[in-house]
Amino acid sequence: MDKNSDFDGDDTLFAEANRWFFRMQAENVTAAEKAAFAHWLAADPRHAKAMDEVRGLLGLLNNPAKASYGATSVGQAARAFQRRGRLFSVPRLAMGLAAVLAISAYVQGPAVLARWNADLSTYAGQRLQRQLADGTKLELNSDTALKFELSSTQRLVTLLRGEVFIDIAPDPRPLVVKTDAGEMRDIGTSFNVAESSDNTVVVVATGVVEVTSRSGERARVSESQRVAFSATDVSAVTGTDLEDDLAWRRGQVVFRQQRLADVVATLNRYRTGRIVIVNPWIRDLNVSGTFDIDRSASPIEALENVLGVRATSLTPYLVMLR
Questions:
Q1: Residue 53 is part of which domain span?
Q2: Does residue 281 fall inside a structural domain?
Q3: Same domain, residue pair 135 and 108
Q4: Integer CA distances (angstroms), 87 to 6, 65, 308, in order
Q5: Would residue 190 count as lying in a domain?
Q6: pTM, two decimal places
Q7: Which of 35, 124, 192, 229 could connect to 234 by a Cys-Cys bridge, CB 3.0–4.6 Å?
Q8: What is the mean pLDDT of each run of 10 residues along the chain (322 residues)?
Q9: What's the distance, Cα to Cα, between the start and end of the chain in Å?
């Protein structure tokens, strides 16, 4: 066994970490189980490393278990991984693939529910343009769902999931956009709204938008500015690059010194399958560049060329980065 490959042949440990991972995702997990998991994680350094592999393989979490990988730069990390030459055993690959497929339905559940309740929606990799009866134009990004209501006193758009660019038609009735975090009210404008589990991000292309969180905090956002807000907090308003923020409207995404793990999470929004990082050593590599999201293979090829990582397609819907 290669002394640098801590888990080669130790599929039992990987399986144990896999079981803990799935149990911690359950809604009915108990405090005693959480304590037992923390005890298991601290009992042996290999447990944290095994959990990192599970998390990387499933590609569901942004932050791996605390571990130091000793790589201080992109080049060092890439060379270190090449020296390790880690290979996944067939049983572990099969186990990981089964886990990815099993959890796929769990991950897609919220998207299916949002589309079921929506007036307009898109699937992964799809974009859609529609004009409402009042003349307002909506441009939906990939994996987006929304509802709209035009009454005699108000125009209301409820963003259930994803991202939408809104070009508002002049009308005496105000247009309000609602998300879980709060609401946005236009003052003659076009703007972009992106909804996530953590917050809502507003980018104003023209005019002014008033943002109000559910807790009542407010902000006024003008042209070429952005703000992020949650149900309880509104961040400072900052200037932004509209070309970067709205690149998705022309079929691109732009990254500026972002972690590979975050880049992969964004790219997965535009794919019918998933990209998963199976090597925790590369999760923190910095990525900068413009990626073509209309051709699913293009971003993967770019990552291979720029970072020196390797991509393996196990199925048309599952790509593993290592």
A1: 11-115
A2: no
A3: no
A4: 11, 21, 17
A5: yes
A6: 0.69
A7: 229
A8: 39 71 72 88 86 65 35 37 42 54 52 77 93 96 94 94 95 94 89 92 96 96 97 96 97 95 93 84 92 87 90 79 86
A9: 20
Q: How many domains does the chain have?
A: 2
Residue with tokens 């291979």: 304
Task: Please give the Cα distance from 309 to 311 (Å, whole number).
Answer: 7
What residue has token string 């009992």? 43
Going 254 to 259 to 261 to 262, the CA torsion angle's sign is negative
Q: Do both 241 and 134 map to the same domain? A: yes
Based on the fold, state whether residues 41 and 148 are members of the same structural domain. no
Return the closest-CA partner of residue 299 out of 280, 279, 274: 274
226, 184: one domain: yes
The phi, psi pair for 144, rounded to 5°, reads: -125, 145
Long-range contacts of 75-82 (CB under 8 A, 24+ apart): 77/281, 77/282, 77/284, 77/285, 78/282, 78/285, 78/307, 78/308, 78/309, 80/281, 81/279, 81/281, 81/282, 81/322, 82/308
Residue 180 to residue 174: CA distance in whole angstroms: 20
166 and 75 within one domain: no
**Token duo for residue 6:** 């801590």
- HSE-up (13 A, CA, CB side) for residue 281: 25
Same domain, 152 and 213: yes
The letter for the amino acid at 1 is M
228 strand-pairing partners: 201
